[in-house]
Design a protein that fits this description.
The chain has seven helices and seven strands, in the order E-H-E-H-E-H-E-H-E-H-E-H-H-E.
């Protein structure tokens, strides 16, 4: 395979957690991967090094998804590194301001919607310019859109907006053979799991498999959605929760 024949993927929030696991999994599946980070350059570089050590190609791109120019810069950097091709886009990065509505600042509300919803719009628009037949777009959401907590207001609302945008974009690009889906994790063992230990134990007890999800569990689901095996799946919210009620 020449570099021009290699499929290319972008994974946002790829320095840790679900994003890092997804970047590594897609690299194993043959993708050249551009992964983004905000501040954790060392962690992002370690993901790139792991991919390259396994014979893959990867690029770490510093980007704050709350900033329009940074979002556009992800695509420009990927074009430069990998020749302008884009086969898969995984929007995993998230802004998670936990606070009660009465205590949430407008800045945090705007931040959540900028990262979780507006960045999806901007990314979809850029992807539409690049993807050809068989392209795959996946947004990573949260089970809190189904069962929100009091403190998850901005996070759940902005992710709900992204889920709706994902469904509508699937209708837009479907005639071009591009699929667009949401993967909605249940309770997953990542740094974003900032809830009391007692609540975690309660939720694990409500999960059919009786354990926390791991980033690799979600990465494998994303890999399926990105694969040709999922060519007939689009406009869907796939609840990957281990059977969480």
């Amino acid at each position: 395979m020449t570099s021009s024949d290699q499929r290319v993927a972008i994974v946002t929030g790829g320095s840790r957690g679900i994003g890092a696991a997804t970047a590594k999994r897609l690299a194993r599946d043959g993708f050249a991967v551009a992964l983004t980070y905000i501040e954790r350059k060392q962690a992002a570089d370690e993901v790139v090094a792991a991919i390259e050590a396994a014979g893959g190609r990867a690029l770490a791109v510093q980007a704050d998804l709350a900033k329009r120019d940074d979002v556009l810069g992800i695509f420009a950097a990927t074009d430069e590194a990998f020749g302008g091709r884009l086969d898969a886009l995984v929007l995993n990065a998230a802004a998670i301001p936990y606070a009660l509505t009465a205590e949430l600042s407008e800045d945090d509300w705007d931040w959540a919607f900028a990262v979780n919803a507006k960045a999806a719009f901007l990314s979809f628009r850029e992807a539409a310019k690049r993807m050809t037949e068989g392209g795959r777009i996946v947004t990573i959401s949260t089970g809190l859109t189904r069962n929100p907590m009091a403190i998850s207001n901005a996070y759940a609302a902005s992710k709900s907006a992204a889920e709706t945008l994902t469904k509508s974009f699937a209708q837009e690009v479907g005639p071009r053979g591009i699929t667009v889906n949401t993967v909605q994790p249940g309770i997953t063992d990542t740094e974003g799991l900032q809830i009391p230990r007692e609540l975690i134990e309660h939720l694990v007890g409500q999960t059919a498999l009786r354990r926390l999800g791991q980033p690799e569990d979600l990465a494998d689901v994303v890999a399926f959605v990105v694969s040709d095996d999922a060519r007939w799946v689009t406009g869907q919210v796939i609840y990957a929760s281990g059977g969480l009620a």
